[in-house]
Amino acid sequence: MNKPQPKPAAIVAGSSVARPPRGATTKPQNMARPAALPVPANRQVHAFTTPQVMEKWSEDAAGVRAIATGDNIITMFDAIGEDYWTGGGVTAKKVAAQLRAIGPRPIEVQINSPGGDVFEGIAIYNVLREHPEPITVKVMGMAASAASIIAMAGDTIEIGAASFIMIHNTWVVSAGNRHDMREVAEWLEPFDTALVDVYAARTKQDAKAIAKWMDDETFMSGSMAIERGFADALLPSDTMTQDEPAKAEDRRVNELRAMELTLVSAGKSRTDARASINKIKGTPGAATDAVDTVTPGADDADDYTGLAGLLASFQNT
């Protein structure tokens, strides 16, 4: 007789997560770079930015790049976490390798990212905070969601006047009954609390106010970010440029990411969502090029701009 299998607590981003440990939070010290943040023991769990943030990044920040280059600069002009659609993405493993290559020298981190996997962002934050030399973070365009967490690792944070820092609660996709939902909410709470602690330590703002801003999914302009302590100074406008080819590519890929997140939000697994997008060829209003021929990471010139209308139709249903 087969032994019955235990019921998974929830479906998170298309993966079964069997009651992951709650995990203890470490309250940071009152200094520029607080203590390490907790990450899930079960890394099958993914926490995302929202499709709406992806869209705002495409509209307001895509293609913004820094003029300055150097061998001590780490650029984060991509989604946080491994990115299926490009084969790229900013990961803790890549950042750790870059830090080793740079060695014990001051670091400049340039950020223009809509976010992505919040737990990968926490891991990157933890890697950066261990660097022994000063870190200057420059927000060019946007540091949203997971990218805003990474920005807090800077000893100095500079931001463009027209750039944004966006903060929100840990965002996952789950399915189940009310008991499953309650368990997921309880499991997520320590991570949100830890993020509040880090933002509060950096900004010296009241923790309750920060929690409210996270509840409201708050976008802060450059001047507001400085006023609230999330940044220290404005970046001169002549340190940034609009890279038009990069802008077009950012928007092209971001429509795919937003479509994937929308389908995941509707109940599909990530694998099924990607398969659905790769079958869009021939859909009225969709791209005329063959999406299903895309190889992740390939430098192709396919036009995905027709996905915008299809994405809007999903979000309006």
From TrEMBL:
<comment type="similarity">
    <text>Belongs to the peptidase S14 family.</text>
</comment>
<keyword id="KW-0720">Serine protease</keyword>
<dbReference type="InterPro" id="IPR029045">
    <property type="entry name" value="ClpP/crotonase-like_dom_sf"/>
</dbReference>
<dbReference type="InterPro" id="IPR001907">
    <property type="entry name" value="ClpP"/>
</dbReference>
<keyword id="KW-0963">Cytoplasm</keyword>
<protein>
    <recommendedName>
        <fullName>ATP-dependent Clp protease proteolytic subunit</fullName>
    </recommendedName>
</protein>
<dbReference type="GO" id="GO:0051117">
    <property type="term" value="F:ATPase binding"/>
</dbReference>
<keyword id="KW-0378">Hydrolase</keyword>
<dbReference type="GO" id="GO:0009368">
    <property type="term" value="C:endopeptidase Clp complex"/>
</dbReference>
<dbReference type="GO" id="GO:0004252">
    <property type="term" value="F:serine-type endopeptidase activity"/>
</dbReference>
<keyword id="KW-0645">Protease</keyword>
<dbReference type="GO" id="GO:0006515">
    <property type="term" value="P:protein quality control for misfolded or incompletely synthesized proteins"/>
</dbReference>
<feature type="region of interest" description="Disordered">
    <location>
        <begin position="1"/>
        <end position="30"/>
    </location>
</feature>
<dbReference type="InterPro" id="IPR023562">
    <property type="entry name" value="ClpP/TepA"/>
</dbReference>
<dbReference type="Pfam" id="PF00574">
    <property type="entry name" value="CLP_protease"/>
</dbReference>
<dbReference type="GO" id="GO:0004176">
    <property type="term" value="F:ATP-dependent peptidase activity"/>
</dbReference>
